[in-house]
Amino acid sequence: MEILVYGIGGVGGYFGGKLAEAGHEVSMIARGEHLKEIQKHGLEVESIKGNFKVKPKKATSDVSEVPTPDLIILGIKSWQIPEVAKELEPIIGENTIILPLQNGADNYEKLIQILPEKNILAGLCFIVSFIEVPGKVKHASYEPKIVFGEADNLQSQRVKKIQDILDEAGVENNVPENIQLEIWKKFLFICTVSGIGGLTRVPIDRIRSSEYLHEMMINTAKEIIEVAKAKNIPLTEKHLEMVFEIINSQPEGTTASTQRDIMNGKPSELENFNGYIVKEGDRLGVEIPVNRYIYECLKPMEEAARKSRE
């Protein structure tokens, strides 16, 4: 199977590396010094599950140089989806499968605005990993897992085929009964901690130890659940409890990637997290004052970060 991994950061680097290690034809899209190191020496992955090094079939920044892929795994940030989808359009074959693994609740919807709906799956992943130095990805914690499926939850042959490939590569995976619910369950966690982390600029343990900030997180999550319900996503009080079990179990010093991007002055997923809840809340008539406060406070920094990238 011809596999293209677009974005060789923590997510794409780990999962793409595992597929290459298993012997699949894996091409990789990367940029800058990271790309140069991969081209010269291959991709190194340092992992709590065992270190490995792979040489991709092709490492490039130009999608026109890769063979027509059977499977494209998107290892980019959610805000990059529209731009990357347009770039991928010329190499999408009749049966190419596109698997997004981004945080966020509307990645599938963004993709089908640009690419054929029949080519696109819905998905997410769990992993804590990042580029440590050019050419090297570090998987620091969490059992890596990919959760995916057809948007209509049909148990299709192509979904089973990808399951087999991931099993071969030793990547834990799951095709749930309701992929949209799974996407929103993760979104509930990541959106609840990311924006408030960007505002306070302290780790999760410091946020949860403050009675005021803990209550603010609860209200953030409750608003997200109300927006989900208005979209017929069956999030419940049980899912709220599960999210706070995860929040309370995070080790000292833990920060979310979006929080780190905000703190480092980089473009972040703010628009796709709290910004998305504000937009959908307004559209659906759901009151979202806490998410709006977080979003509006962070928006000037986000705009400055994006302007500096132009």
UniProtKB/TrEMBL annotation:
Signal peptide: none annotated. Pfam families: ApbA, ApbA_C. It is an enzyme of class 1 (oxidoreductase). Gene3D superfamilies: N-(1-d-carboxylethyl)-l-norvaline Dehydrogenase, domain 2 (1.10.1040.10), NAD(P)-binding Rossmann-like Domain (3.40.50.720). The keyword DNA repair does not apply. Residues 178-302 form the Ketopantoate reductase C-terminal domain. It comes from the Bacteria. Its EC number is 1.1.1.169. SUPFAM superfamilies: 6-phosphogluconate dehydrogenase C-terminal domain-like, NAD(P)-binding Rossmann-fold domains. GO terms for biological process: pantothenate biosynthetic process. Belongs to the ketopantoate reductase family. Pathway: Cofactor biosynthesis; (R)-pantothenate biosynthesis; (R)-pantoate from 3-methyl-2-oxobutanoate: step 2/2. Residues 3-152 form the Ketopantoate reductase N-terminal domain. This is 2-dehydropantoate 2-reductase. One of its GO terms (molecular function) is 2-dehydropantoate 2-reductase activity. PANTHER family: 2-DEHYDROPANTOATE 2-REDUCTASE, PROBABLE 2-DEHYDROPANTOATE 2-REDUCTASE. Catalyzes the NADPH-dependent reduction of ketopantoate into pantoic acid. It catalyses: (R)-pantoate + NADP(+) = 2-dehydropantoate + NADPH + H(+).
